[in-house]
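Field reference: "sequence" (input) and "structure" (output). Example, UDP-glucuronic acid decarboxylase 1:
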Amino acid sequence: MKQLNRQPTLSKQHRPHHHRLPLPRSLASYLLREHRLLFVLLGFLLASSCFLIYPSFTPLSSSSSPRDTLLARGDSVIVVDNFFTGRKENFAHHLADPRFELIRHDVVEPILLEVDQIYHLACPASPYKTNVMGTLNMLGLAKRVGARFLLTSTSEVYGDPLEHPQKESYWGHVNPIGVRSCYDEGKRTAETLTMDYHRGAGVEVRIARIFNTYGPRMCLDDGRVVSNFVAQTLRKQPMTVYGDGKQTRSFQYVSDLVDGLITLMESEHIGPFNLGNPGEFTMLELAQVVKETIDPSARVEFKPNTADDPHMRKPDISKAKSLLHWEPKISLKQGLPRMVSDFQMRIMDEKR
């Protein structure tokens, strides 16, 4: 990929006020990340997730965060985080790098930086402000400085789909007043705003619709099904399955998503693009994979299903394969042990 050029820094008198760590200023590629997880986030994913993402382990992947890949290839990176759930320790391995800068800031407030690319990955548990005001602020920044803007949207824009698998051309089936709709409609609004800025203001934009993602450094208790199952099993608790467990989801390993996001950002295609692994599992099948990976004696506990829970979710990635030449490489059975190793270490630390 083409290396980004540095841009001149802003003069002190014109810099907006924000809390920042005392690091050398370096500008080029702007990674925007706010852990919600809702993220629930990812949670990286909730596919938009709560990933507290660290550099990944080999050999399955070379990176579990866009910032790691971008720094490794020589770009300068700024991370903006409000630290509602994130920890500064997650960036400790980058703090000595003069090409890395970490700023404490909430994107619901404007910020002015000179950058070339913006990865808008932020989304908190109560997402309407970040999805609307945060997206508007980042689009405004992209317009002012001429940066390329990448929105990480979500498979939730498809709601409880009537089309299966879901193509990008499908408009979705969302209950606008349902308990899940704040996130779903917030991301749909963010996509609308992104395209409005592209058509009306000429901003270069890219849109990714992320499906369920898992991997090292997810929040242990973020409410996502993979992290829930893994954490519960490691703690010798029953895995909580809502409903009859026949709902389906597709799970991609985080390094595959990172590759997809960077490939999309540097392509000439706007999107939207589905970024997900088309391997489809029922919740009971996922529980079985977790049992095989961690503890064959692990139990499942059934609870009433939540309102508006989608019955099935699977990406059609034909568009990404054709135009981006991207497709996931890591299966659930390959990636899950890496996540389990990370969770084991952190759960052991809890007991000390």
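Residues 181-201 form the longest helix (21 residues).
Confidence is low (pLDDT under 50) at residues 1-62.
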